[in-house]
Amino acid sequence: MRKRVTSSLGRVHLARPREATAGASLPAASLAAHILLGRSSCRSVATATGSAEAAGSGNHGKMNLSGAPFPRDPARKDYMQRYRQDLARLSARLLEEAGAAAGARWVDSHCHLESILCRTWGGGGTAAVRESEQLLTLQDLVSLWPAGMEFCICNAVFRKPYKLPLRQGRAEAARSGGAASCLSEWGWLRANLNHFHEGSRLASRLKFTVGIHPHEAVHPQGWDEEAALFVRELAAHPLCVGIGECGMDLLRHKPRLADRQLDAFRAQLRLAVELGKPVVVHSRSAARPDGAAPAYATASGADPVEAACMSALTEELPRSHAVHMHCYSGSLEHAQRLCDHFPRLRLGFTGALTFGGKRGAQLAALVTSLPLERLLLETDGPYMCPAPFRGQTAHPGHVHLVAEQIADIKGETLSKVLAATRESTRAVYGI
Ligand SMILES: [Zn+2]
């Protein structure tokens, strides 16, 4: 997982937004400016092409990938070929099912574009990701998505910059002629806001949410006045569709830090109510993934994270508020209580649903029991890439595989699953 560092670059989010223009070159004057911008924006500036137009042209159903990058390296070429074959298979499935693939529309309701593009997630420790996958610009990435995948919702929730893995850092330093970059999701969003502006070729396929992740909320500088100001400012952007992901996650943190997470969570819930924005909730049970009992528990025996999450949501939000329970992996009872209380609450499922084993079976049981109308599709890319691409960098072009798994679990047509989850995106986000 990501290694974050504290440094003066923690102020990265305060940098002025930069309006990148195609063909402009990176100012050589300031290494700091390079760091603040993040190297993905530098790559975007350098290689902006019209390749995204093919994907965004409304040519739905044909899955035109003519503008997609096609590398010469054999491993990368093979990866791209398999990706293209998968989209062709999807197109055929939709045609066979509905008689017209052109009608199908879907959305990736949760991903992290900065981590996808910069490979800062490190491939989950899998060198093959960095060696076999091509680094892409945002334009290139969007051009890879099938046209039916209307847009993604990108979450910007990490304020701190983090170190690139040593080897990647050296390569980047050699490439850029400077020190290796430190990036943050907030810094990336700032640097790439030009792509989210009306009139940008990519704007129709990009939305974002902003907040502080519970992993970062455990730090004293995770959620403070500056953070609240940043979130308020970005929330005013026309393509900001929600606050978060925020919530609780005690799998990797000491129980005494739970209060910090809870304070940041509640503060963001109140902000969402004030701003009239949906909330994206990240809630991970304190139960250990191997099924062993949690290290600590409530007096009643209820899962402490589920209990705290339920209290925070019901106490801070009106019942009519829109809620996205992202990458849901809690208990069925908790999901049902949440659904009963909040009519505009939906539960997101990721590629983990395709993983099989105990985890896959648990998620499949949830999907079986929950109404289709309550589900959202998400990749949480770059994490949890669905089968048959497990282990690779997940991105919105993979999210149909989650829908196909839901269709298979529920015995429904893929078209029905895509339509229902698309409607759920409207119910939560109004888009
Ligand atoms: Zn996420």
**CATH class annotation:** Alpha Beta
Strand order of the largest sheet: 1-2-3-4-5-6-7-8
Portion in helices: 40-55%
Note the total helix count.
Answer: 17
Distance between the termini: 32 Å
SSE order, as H and E?
HHHHEHHHEHHEHHEHEHEHEHEHH
- Ligands, ions, cofactors: zinc ion
Q: Uncertain regions: pLDDT < 50 for 5+ in a row? A: 1-68
Shape: globular
* Whole-number tally of structural domains: 1
The CATH architecture can be given as: Alpha-Beta Barrel
CATH-defined topology? TIM Barrel
Strand content: 5-15%
The description of the largest β-sheet is:
8 strands, parallel
Class of secondary structure makeup = alpha/beta
Assign the CATH superfamily: Metal-dependent hydrolases
Mean pLDDT: 79
Keywords: Hydrolase
InterPro entries: DNase_TatD-rel_CS (IPR018228), Metal_Hydrolase (IPR032466), TatD-like (IPR001130)
Pfam families: TatD_DNase
Region (Disordered): 52-73
What would your notes on this structure say?
- The structure is a single chain.
- The protein is of the alpha/beta class.
- It has a single domain (8-16, 30-429), classed as TIM Barrel (Alpha-Beta Barrel).
- Helices cover 41% and strands 11% of the residues.
- The protein has 17 helices and eight strands.
- The chain has an eight-stranded parallel sheet, with helices on both faces.
- Helix 12 (258-275) packs parallel to helix 13.
- The two termini are 32 Å apart.
- The model is unreliable at 1-68 (pLDDT under 50).
- Zinc ion binds next to loops.
- Zinc ion is lined by residues 110, 112, 155, 245, 326, 380.
- GO terms for molecular function: hydrolase activity, acting on ester bonds.
